[in-house]
Backbone:
């Protein structure tokens, strides 16, 4: 399914990339208003009309894309609830809350500003899974869009403020407000000029925090590269140091991923966001945990500490969610800063992540740097290798043969787990590349593993 629309169409125009995470493309090239409207109409057909909740991030193409989505949905006979600029998790939460038939988010998540994309949500607030995505794609590719007759009335209802209020209220309901408020934490915040720019400061103020915010404008090209990885967060690190903040929080443009800067002004690494939240949740109540196969072995360490089982899922939010539902996990997510807290909803949510981290700081009386230092440290290496499709299978087979004495998992590409190290090799869902992630105790060990694996990859 992933690669089904890759390449060019009959006129030689590039096509958007489609994966389990939705549709992504460069605006004006692979993602035009026509393509967006057709996808929206296909989704409307898939839902057989009904009510659809729509939200978007702050990309400058967002307004254009919104009207293309509206046009497509209305043409397929859907009513629309327009949330305006809100985080992806807000759309997920409101789709469920408003008992809508589905939801759509216009966002390219952490991709550069020239991109935009579409995410599709089921009535339960989780993304479409692979079989549902296949049905949607079949409508799109086989041109099976159904347009109702001219006399079907449709409507658009705006619901921005109520959506923000509901997400805030629901998030706060899971937190010990008195405990957090008493601490009067100083929080430095980097919203990436994204959809979290309005709601996140509101949440932190409700938690009694004093805040300093950067990159919170809704009408400009992102001031920093959008992925919340350490090399893109120097501005926030400086802000933490300058203001002597207790913690720094950074999100991506659609505010589902959370990265943390320590009180010393250092990025602790995205994998620590989920590891610390998991540690906090398990310290209160034991239960099962799910993380994807590309997430740090920190998760093994944390779950082992509390003698709780950890299950690994395929990469992709909906894959983690389905595994969590199946196993009745109490917490889970992805190492890229994606925290999924089921009592709130089944989606990655940076807001609940911030709340839980602040409560952990308040309850433990420890600083972020202390909590991070108490966990083991690893060196993680992430590589993208351009590769023909047939090369991925052969490379995986060679890696499997070479590491036959180690623990092998073939659920999603190949994951080899050794003593204090692991490698995960998988074809990307969104690009013609293979992703290689290696984690080991030291940089030297990771580099040695990288050298070994590189020789096994067929280009
Ligand atoms: Mg995102």
Residues:
């Amino acid at each position: 399914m992933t690669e089904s629309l890759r390449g060019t169409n009959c006129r030689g125009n590039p096509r958007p990339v489609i994966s389990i995470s939705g549709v992504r493309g460069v605006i004006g090239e692979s993602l035009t208003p026509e393509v967006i409207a057709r996808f929206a109409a296909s989704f409307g057909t898939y839902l057989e009309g009904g009510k659809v909740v729509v939200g978007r991030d702050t990309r400058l193409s967002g307004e254009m894309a919104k009207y293309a989505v509206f046009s497509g949905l209305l043409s397929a006979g859907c009513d629309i609830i327009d949330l305006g600029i809100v985080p992806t998790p807000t759309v997920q939460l409101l789709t469920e809350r408003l008992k809508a038939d589905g939801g759509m988010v216009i966002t390219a998540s952490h991709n550069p500003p020239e991109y935009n994309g579409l995410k599709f949500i089921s009535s339960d607030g989780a993304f479409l899974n692979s079989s549902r995505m296949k049905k949607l794609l079949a409508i799109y590719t086989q041109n099976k869009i159904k347009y109702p007759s001219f006399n079907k009335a449709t409507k658009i209802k705006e619901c921005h403020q109520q959506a923000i209020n509901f997400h805030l209220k629901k998030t706060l309901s899971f937190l010990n407000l008195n405990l957090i408020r008493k601490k009067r934490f100083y929080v430095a915040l980097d919203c990436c000029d994204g959809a979290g720019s309005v709601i996140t400061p509101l949440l932190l103020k409700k938690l009694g925090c004093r805040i300093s915010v950067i990159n919170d404008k809704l009408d400009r090209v992102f001031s920093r590269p959008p992925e919340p990885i350490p090399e893109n967060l120097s501005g926030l690190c400086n802000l933490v140091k300058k203001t002597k903040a207790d913690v720094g929080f950074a999100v991506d443009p659609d505010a589902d991923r959370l990265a943390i800067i320590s009180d010393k002004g250092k990025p602790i690494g995205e994998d620590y966001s989920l590891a610390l939240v998991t540690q906090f949740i398990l310290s209160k109540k034991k239960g099962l945990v799910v993380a994807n196969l590309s997430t740090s072995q920190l998760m093994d360490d944390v779950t082992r500490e509390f003698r709780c089982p950890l299950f690994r899922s395929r990469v992709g939010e909906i894959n983690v969610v389905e595994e969590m539902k199946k196993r009745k996990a109490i917490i889970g997510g992805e190492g890229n800063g994606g925290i999924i807290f089921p009592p709130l909803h089944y989606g990655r949510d940076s807001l609940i992540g911030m709340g839980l981290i602040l409560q952990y700081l308040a309850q433990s009386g420890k600083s972020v740097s202390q909590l991070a230092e108490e966990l083991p440290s690893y060196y993680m290496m992430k590589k993208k290798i351009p590769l023909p499709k047939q090369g991925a299978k052969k490379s995986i087979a060679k890696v499997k043969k070479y590491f036959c004495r180690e623990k092998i998992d073939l659920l999603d590409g190949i994951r080899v787990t050794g003593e204090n190290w692991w490698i995960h090799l998988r074809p990307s869902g969104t690009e013609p590349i293979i992703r290689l992630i290696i984690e080991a105790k030291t940089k030297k060990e990771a580099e040695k593993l990288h050298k070994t694996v590189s020789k096994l990859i067929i280009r």
Remarks:
- Residues 1-11 have pLDDT under 50 and may be disordered.
- The chain has three domains: 17-160, 174-373, 379-458.
